[in-house]
Amino acid sequence: MASNSLDMLVDLYQPIIKELDTPFEIVRVLSPSSDKVLDFIGTHFSKGWLSEAKAGLYKNHPTCFIARDDSKIIGFACYDATAKAYFGPTGVDEVYRGKGIGKALLLKCLVSMKEEGYGYAIIGGVEPKNWPFYEKVSGAVPIQNSKKIYQRMV
Question: GO molecular function: any one (predicted)?
Answer without folding.
Answer: acyltransferase activity, transferring groups other than amino-acyl groups
